[in-house]
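Internal QA ticket QA-208
Title: Verify multi-chain structure generation after dependency bump
Assignee: T.L.

Test input:
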Amino acid sequence: MATDPTHQAEAAIRLWSGIEPPNAAARRGLEDLPALIAEFAALRGTLVFEDEPSSFEAALREEQEPGT
Amino acid sequence: MTDLAALSATEAADAFAKGDATAEALVRASLARIDAHDGQVNAVVRLDREAALEAATAQDRARAAGRPLGPLAGAPMMHKDMYYRAGRVSTCGSRIRGDFRPAVTATVLDRLDAAGAIDMGTLNMAEFAQNPTGHNAHHGDCHNPWSLPYCTGGSSSGSGAGVAARFFTAALGSDTGGSIRLPASICGVTGIKGTQTRVSRAGVMPLSFSMDNVGPLARTARDCARIMRVISGHDPRDATSAPEAVPDYEAALTGDLRGVSVAVPREWFLDGADDAVVQGFEAALEVLKARGATVTRVSCPSLAAIGTYVSVVSRVEAAAIHANWMREHPADYAIHLSGRLYGGYAIPGHLYVEALSRRGALLRQFCREALSGHHVVATPTLRMRVPTLAETDIDASPDNWARHMAVSANTRPFNYLGLPTISLPCGLDDRGLPLGLQLAARPFGEGRVLAAADAFQRDTDWHARMPPLA
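Actual output:
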């Protein structure tokens, strides 16, 4: 069983999407995943239970430039 | 005698309306410029020479007959090769869609046609609009007219390079992470993306449906104002397009910035910025102050979260729409693109939903931080000086990945926030390559950024300078 994040990600992509790493650059691209995981970990707890994607369209209108 | 190819879009349309130039002469001047220089620049994918001349002749006849003229009548334009016109090949910068002939025409092309603009063909771009430098393995890289070894910025590479080289007066680009503003900055032209939902995307190649935007690259803010008026507004063919009325942006270009407060975030946008970028940016702020604006440094802690979420949204959405091709013929993509897409499949769905769900709250927070009591946010468009094609080429070396992705660090946050944002030229660096000033405003505040950019261009001539093409 692969244990490093890159190999785990490759296995998950193969399992869920049926896609193989197309080249070395793709594997290289996976190397930024640990940093991204850390960034998400730092944001844990900020999502409010009632938040949902449509809150963005509402915010666009609420924060609208006055007079437009 | 006036060099017709040197006219901006509004100058060309106004010259045509007044009878100072025929549409045919304007198109022929553009064609001559392309014939002379596109061998070096490689901005053009498809040149519809005869169709452009026929469209110009039709405009000339309309004027001679006294029929009403559109606001862009006679202005030669070309567009990124991802705006569908029924029956015309639209490659989207790719091999995969090398012979794709859409059955529909993009609403924005219909609107430009109705305004009298002359569509001369299609332009080079990053493959499927997915890199910030403009590299293209299938059509060949587009080159910066200011210095050919340098990148043009992307993904609207041909749009930026072609406007800068005076091949045409204006071009549509698209902007999901900076793809209008980056080539505008790097090629020394003016480009705007509107508020998310401001411009219809019907008949436009998708990349990331949450953050894709259509907008113009042109010489001046005035050009952008006129084009945005034409292309903006609700479209029944695009359910996401906003119903808000479209103002007359051009009528609001007064040059007066008295009472306008400009906010400069302390975080993010100047982190690790090149000295030449900082100098050009600070000089640009002085120009705004001289026009009557006040400048205030503000703190925006929201930018850290925004920087995390923005890349997740675009990567996952792009991965989803490319999944079939990534399974069936991944080798048809350039190395850098299949590599970039691949990482998107590793991001869990719940984190993608988190990124989308936090968007409204972070927009409100950013507006409190940066736009409470202020009208415009100002930043450099790039933190770095213009890089060369070689040093940002991932296909040649994966070691270039970090530099390649750093190009769009300052533009991406505004796609997540959905704010109207413009880039305009604000100087040349020590190597003679352009620097860009980025201005953003509240949702539907396109008029704000256009007015500030126009005021800036009344006191500077960076937008009027021509690249030294031989």
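Spot checks passed. The first helix of chain B runs from residue 9 to 18.
Status: verified.
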